[in-house]
Design brief:
Blueprint (H helix, E strand, L loop, with lengths): L8 E4 L2 E4 L5 H16 L13 H4 L9 H29 L3 H15 L19 H23 L13 E5 L6 H19 L3 E6 L9 H21 L2 E6 L2 H4 L6 H11 L7 E7 L17 E4 L5 H14 L8 H11 L5 H15 L4 E3 L3 E3 L5 H14 L19 H14 L2
Parallel strand pairs: 3-6, 3-7, 4-5, 5-6
Antiparallel strand pairs: 1-2, 8-9
């Protein structure tokens, strides 16, 4: 039995009864209509088919208080503006009408995107709820170019001359924001696209105990993986995605000079061998400046703090995934999180949802006399699980000692831009 994930419903037997008497299609229509009304304010209204903003914000279904609803509208408008700006730039760059650019942009996103299931069982980047702008960038700048090139190569055609294949992709942000979850989802996204489209895209994950230092096993893990990826390209003209896990622990030049040298050598201009590496760090300022050389890392993406509406969407998604009716008051849960200073990024809330689901299963039943029943999620169920998590949480802040520099006063974005500007000037 499955409870509809996007409505406030009551579940009886095999039937899902909506309090608003709306089925899933009607709800989807309502979301799409709201999106269209929002876009009417724009002169260049992007219409994307199934990869539209109504899909990006599909799990933003719980009614929140006035200030949070305003924030939600602001975020949708922000993503909409980003898309409109992208289309406008494409129109000018290609010297084509905006309407033509919009259609090309739509097709471009569909090449790299995966159709959402909208039932709590998302895959690839679709399961990274919230972070709409970050997902848009990853699909637009990382997935689509690689998929487009592989489609062209395997059909015997020349890829577009201006197609930019990423060499290195670095996501950054404080610990606990779900950076690893995002990159693991990106790896899964490539696997699914490769299978769906019959493409020669291979994924590798390097996951080593870097804290053990410059061991032969650690050094060979880097060198051998990149060598295997080169051989894959030579034999099949395919593309490799190499996810280097725990990059923070690897990139310590004082403790791991050999590992850093191996990584530096392997990642420099690796795109020429149809290789793209991906990884994450908590603080760019703690990493060697050579990491941000554009010949090594040409896409840097900040993973920002989640807003209240995004955290609400995250809760909706995981309760849909657990097939449970969501009776919880998201405003009360969000108030608790704000009061305690907690953040519910995807990895954290998955753990919370697992714990709540485990306890609620004790009250579920499915038998001939009583029928089927799944205990709904109530507000106190969520807050109690958050309290338990908060009590057990041990924050470990590890920072490598490092001499301060004049660049330390800059924001992370400005810091990276300054280093890349210096490298570009030295070309």
């Amino acid at each position: 039995m499955r409870a509809a994930p996007i409505q406030n419903t009551g579940v009886y037997g095999n039937n899902t009864v909506s309090k608003n008497n709306l089925n899933t299609n009607q709800t989807k229509m309502r979301i799409s209509q709201n999106y269209s009304q929002l876009n009417m304010q724009k002169s260049n209204n992007p219409a994307f088919g199934w990869f539209g903003l109504d899909d990006l914000f599909y799990y933003f279904n719980k009614k929140l208080n006035a200030s949070r609803e305003a924030k939600r509208r602001e975020q949708i408008e922000e993503t909409n503006k980003k898309v409109v700006d992208d289309i406008s730039l494409m129109s000018k760059k290609m010297r084509i009408p905006v309407s033509v650019a919009r259609d090309k942009y739509n097709e471009y996103l569909k090449i790299g995107g995966i159709e959402p299931s909208k039932n709590g069982r998302e895959v690839g980047l679709n399961k990274v709820i919230g972070y709409s702008n970050e997902k848009l960038d990853l699909i637009k700048d990382v997935v689509t170019p690689i998929v487009m090139k592989q489609k062209a190569v395997q059909s015997g055609q020349q890829p577009p001359e201006d197609l930019k294949i990423p060499n290195g992709v670095l996501v950054y942000g404080p610990n606990g924001r779900g950076k690893s979850y995002m990159l693991e989802s990106l790896v899964e996204h490539f696997k699914i696209k490769s299978r769906q489209d019959g493409l020669k895209i291979k994924t590798f994950v390097i996951n080593r105990p870097w804290n053990l230092g410059d061991t032969d096993e650690n050094a060979y893990a880097i060198a051998d993986t990149f060598e295997d990826a080169k051989k894959f390209n030579e034999e099949s003209n395919g593309h490799s995605i190499i996810y280097v896990n725990n990059l923070d622990n690897l990139l310590d030049e004082d403790e791991h000079p050999i590992l850093c040298a191996e990584f530096l050598n392997a990642t420099t201009n690796c795109a020429k061998d149809n290789i793209t590496w991906i990884g994450s760090v908590c603080s760019p300022k703690l990493e060697p400046q050579w990491l941000f050389n554009p010949s090594r890392t040409d896409i840097c993406l900040a993973v920002r703090n989640m807003s209240d509406p995004e955290m609400s969407a995250l809760m909706s998604y995981f309760w849909a995934q657990k097939d449970r009716q969501d009776n919880s008051d998201h405003n009360k849960v969000l108030n608790y999180l704000n009061e305690t200073g907690m953040n519910v990024y995807p990895p954290v809330f998955k753990q919370i949802a697992d714990n709540v689901d485990k306890k609620l299963k004790e009250q579920d039943y499915d038998n001939y006399k009583r029928g089927r029943y799944k205990k709904p999620v109530e507000t106190q169920d969520v807050i109690s699980a958050l309290e338990e998590y908060r009590t057990d949480l041990v924050l470990q802040k590890q920072a490598r000692p490092r001499a301060l520099s004049a660049l330390d006063s800059l924001t992370d974005d400005a810091y990276i831009a300054k280093i890349q500007e210096k490298h570009n000037a030295n070309k």
